[in-house]
TrEMBL record:
InterPro entries: Aldolase_TIM, Indole-3-glycerol_P_synth, Indole-3-glycerol_P_synth_dom, Indole-3-GlycerolPSynthase_CS, RibuloseP-bd_barrel. HAMAP family: IGPS_B (MF_00134_B). The gene is trpC. It holds the Pfam family IGPS. Transmembrane segments: none annotated. CDD domains: IGPS. Residues 4-252 form the Indole-3-glycerol phosphate synthase domain. It catalyses: 1-(2-carboxyphenylamino)-1-deoxy-D-ribulose 5-phosphate + H(+) = (1S,2R)-1-C-(indol-3-yl)glycerol 3-phosphate + CO2 + H2O. GO terms for molecular function: indole-3-glycerol-phosphate synthase activity. This is Indole-3-glycerol phosphate synthase. Belongs to the TrpC family.
Length: 259
């Protein structure tokens, strides 16, 4: 059993509980109407989705000491284009309340980072003020991904569609994903390799599709690599959560983008 299988098995249970207990509209949140796609496509620097990530299955505890609202505000002040908040509790120590707290504190798009397998999670993300949800190609069969994609779109949410290999990139294209995240980390083995972005970026027309390179970004040189491949955005968790000087970290990673 891979870690992804374990997480998905846990999600099935969570969804059952949500279906019994979650009342639609029971969460109240500020709504911020900005499109990540539009702002990232227009930016002349690498855009950063900074992540609120206390822990992970591959790294264990990363930083348990930050307040989500404070961290979110800091990210925004330092130049984040969006904020990703992990809301998975068993494996990442996040909660939906973390996302609500960040949502109230900032005015940039917020991504609900979770393993979405059911419409009810999309309802909850929407109610809690998310602008975007994550859909992971490796988590579900294509027809189900398609349904959830359309469901989220109808609610006015944007979708970060995450892929890790050629086959999944073809699924992204068939579904018509506008924002594609190439995860450099294999969710089954935890291996991280920026060459994944270089390999898969070639398959898309980056004039139409917004490419985000996810995971393993530490230095300006890493960012140069994925920028060259065609990424206009990066998703950075651990490096942000461990940074002692966020302003400096952002300045290093927000490199100018050529044409
Ligand atoms: O901490 P990193 O290596 O910067 O990675 C961030 C982000 O890409 C990673 O948290 C992630 C990418 N896809 C996911 C899917 C589920 C949970 C987490 C993730």
């Amino acid at each position: 059993m891979t870690i992804l299988d374990k997480i998905l098995a846990e999600k099935e249970k969570e969804v059952e509980v949500l279906k019994q207990h979650y009342r639609q509209g029971s969460l109240q949140a500020k709504k911020v109407d900005v499109s990540l796609y539009d702002t990232f496509m227009k930016a002349d620097k690498m855009s950063i989705i900074a992540e609120m990530k206390r822990a992970s299955p591959s790294k264990g505890l990363i930083n348990d000491g930050v307040e989500p609202a404070d961290q979110g505000k800091l990210y925004e002040e330092c130049g984040a284009g969006a904020i990703s908040v992990l809301t998975d509790e068993p494996f990442f120590k996040g909660t939906i309340e973390d996302m609500q707290a960040v949502r109230s504190a900032v005015n940039i798009p917020v991504l609900n980072k979770d393993f979405i397998i059911d419409e009810i999670q999309i309802e909850r993300a929407y109610d809690a003020g998310a602008n975007l949800i994550l859909l992971i190609a490796a988590a579900l069969p294509e027809p189900r991904l398609q349904q959830l994609y359309q469901y989220a779109e109808r609610k006015g949410l944007e979708i970060l569609f995450e892929v890790h290999n050629e086959e999944e990139m073809l699924v992204a294209k068939r579904i018509g994903a506008k924002i594609v995240g190439i995860n450099n980390r294999n969710l089954k083995t935890f291996e991280v390799d920026l060459a994944i972005t270089e390999r898969l970026a070639d398959m898309v027309d980056t004039k139409e599709t917004l490419l985000i390179s996810e995971s393993g970004m530490k230095t300006g040189a890493d960012v140069e690599r994925v920028a060259k491949a065609g990424a206009r955005g990066i998703l950075v968790g651990e490096t942000m959560m461990r940074s002692k000087d966020l302003k400096e970290t952002f300045d290093q990673l927000r490199i100018p983008l050529g044409e």
